[in-house]
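In these records, each integer encodes one residue's backbone shape. Here is one protein:

___
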Amino acid sequence: MPADRSPRRPDVTTTELVGGAEAVHVSLHEYDERWPAEFAEHRRRIVEALAPSGIAVDVEHIGSTSVPGLAAKPIVDIVVAVPDITAEEDYLDPLLAAGYELRVREPGHRLVRTPERSVHVHVYEQGAAAIDEYLLLRDHLRTDAADRELYASVKRDLLDRRWDDMNDYADAKTEVVTAIKARARAARDLARER
């Protein structure tokens, strides 16, 4: 069982990028029917790795590979919500023992990935706004064909560039993602009013 954590420990205050910046060539693949199965396999692996710590976690498939019909870079993104992001011994140590590698440690967020870099696991504390944002975008793109195609076309346009780091590629998509999420919020709010 996890130890009592009162009072709460402080989180990290800086960003640690394990291994430094990595040049990356982003390739877009048509939607692959195997991506949900790959998510399911890693969800099982994560849940089994964290079970001995006794913490309750939520595991969701996020990112473009979670949206049927959407072209994506072939990296399955997963979000894991843990009770206490500062209690790394409860989740980080078990994930590393399960074969994932630490890539990012920053305030409120940890990122581990497979050695092949085909799966990225984002760890946040339960209730983190970032989780809601990921799910909002995913759920909207699953149901809105126009925004799904808009997002795919922006990603295709960015393919001709060389990226010094995956974060630079992600930053280049910020404007369109922000606009799509604004429409998603408006649609969600309208549905709630009905």
Summary: The chain has one domain: 17-193. The chain has a mean pLDDT of 91. Residues 19 and 105 are 12 Å apart (CA to CA).
